[in-house]
Specification:
The protein is 84% helix and 0% strand. By secondary structure, the chain is mostly helical. The mean pLDDT is 93.
């Protein structure tokens, strides 16, 4: 439970920075994706399989791509 609170606080802080600092949106998008990917790997460190790695990688890549395209549109 505590790891989800930690993830929420970190992603929430980066999300607020993403919204308030438009100059750094590209880097903050990549940071959000990396944090989510690394958190996924660390939360499954006891039962880490390549399917889990691929799942977290693809979801973080999708999120980064969406954030970058939305910031280019704004």
């Amino acid at each position: 439970m505590m790891e989800y609170v930690t993830l929420l606080l970190i992603l929430g802080g980066l999300g607020l920075a993403y919204l308030s600092l438009p100059v750094y949106r590209l880097w903050l998008s990549v940071a959000l994706g990396l944090v989510y990917f690394i958190w996924g790997l660390l939360s499954h460190k006891n039962q880490l399989h390549w399917q889990i790695v691929l799942e977290y990688f693809s979801l973080s890549l999708l999120g980064v791509a969406l954030l970058i395209f939305m910031s280019l549109r704004a």
